[in-house]
Design brief:
By secondary structure, this protein is α+β, with helices and mostly antiparallel strands. It is built from eight helices and seven strands, in the order αααααβαββαββαββ. The longest helix is centred in the N-terminal third of the chain and has 75 residues. The relative contact order is 0.08.
Length: 329
């Protein structure tokens, strides 16, 4: 019994073997005096008692050996299973990293396309402002200081907008796995900068209610990626459902509840079909057809939430609602 308990507690074949050998040695040491006494000092009754004791010891030894073999096989199986689980866990982590890169690449294509559209307006504004000064100069007109200052302000404003977009784009795709304490409002604003003109182009209004004092310990790119995916999904679904342009709205609400930070994103679309609402976070699931989407966006949202021990749920409330609950460290 001591052998079994010790070996199970040890959980190692090498320790278990050592314990068993000690047990065998103990039994042998107990048998030697009996055998010697049996040979040199025994009488009739003593022979019978000693023989029975020796047989009992041999039975214990044999039984212990059988238990040894059984438990050794069990421990080997346990260690083999543990190693297999570790291998599978490593494979899943690598797979998730690959999926994250794949999702980032898909997001990169969408954002580059959005930037191509959103840069047209500020670049046109810059060209128009400079052209007005050029035309005045060519016509030998007197250029007032106010006109020059106005032109400078317009150009500076547009360049600042372009620079901010580039900075957010660069930060989003920077390979950084470190976590930091960051304002949730800053992350929401960063996501909106990347999609700002895309949302404007599709006449989608965004209402944000987020306390600036809410801080979370995360990798910034992960949460920006999560928010971007949900916003892009909301945009696509409203356009797909032919929601009237004046009714296209997205509401972002961030608040604390008990020991959690809640990010709730609601759109004014037609909601999620109840038949698929339980499947939308599955890998490769998409309602956009073969050419409309990869089915990775919401699945990556699920993986990001899982990474931080958070939850993400989808529901309907006069439109689709996505609720993310992050634990407060």
């Amino acid at each position: 019994m001591v052998t079994i308990i010790t070996s199970i507690a040890a959980g190692s074949v090498s320790i278990f073997v050592s314990v068993f050998y000690i047990f065998v040695l103990f039994v042998i040491l107990q048998m030697i005096p009996l055998i010697c006494a049996l040979i040199y000092h025994g009488n009739g009754m003593f022979y019978i008692v000693a023989s029975m004791a020796t047989l009992f010891m041999l039975i214990i030894l044999l039984n212990g050996y059988r238990q040894f073999k059984t438990l050794k096989e069990t421990i080997l199986l346990k260690e083999s299973f543990k190693n297999r689980v570790d291998d599978i866990t490593c494979e899943l982590k690598e797979k998730n990293k690959m999926l994250l890169r794949r999702s980032r690449q898909a997001a990169m294509g969408e954002i580059i396309d959005a930037i191509a559209h959103q840069w047209k307006q500020p670049l046109n504004a810059i060209v128009m402002s400079i052209s007005m000064l050029e035309n005045s100069a060519k016509a030998n007109e007197v250029i007032k200081n106010k006109d020059i200052i106005d032109c400078y302000n317009i150009v500076n404003k547009q360049i600042t907008h372009l620079t901010n977009t580039l900075n957010e784009f660069r930060n989003f795709f920077r390979a950084d796995s470190n976590t930091e304490l960051v304002s949730l409002k800053v992350l929401v604003d960063s996501a909106l900068i990347l999609l700002k003109d895309e949302l404007l182009r599709n006449m989608i209004k965004v209402d944000v209610s987020c306390n600036e004092n809410i801080f979370i310990n995360v990798n910034s790119n992960d949460i920006i990626h999560l928010i971007l995916s949900i916003l892009s999904n909301a945009k696509d679904e409203m356009l797909k459902s032919n929601v009237d342009s004046k009714d296209r709205k997205i509401f972002i609400n961030c608040y604390t509840q008990m020991s959690k930070v809640i990010i709730k994103i609601k759109d004014s679309g037609k909601g999620i079909d109840k038949k698929i609402i339980d499947d939308i976070f599955k890998m490769d699931f998409t309602t956009k057809g073969k050419t409309g989407g990869t089915g990775m966006g919401l699945y990556m949202c699920y993986l990001i939430c899982e990474k931080y021990g958070a939850t993400i749920k989808a529901s309907n409330d006069n439109g689709a609602v996505f609720t993310v609950a992050l634990k407060i460290d």
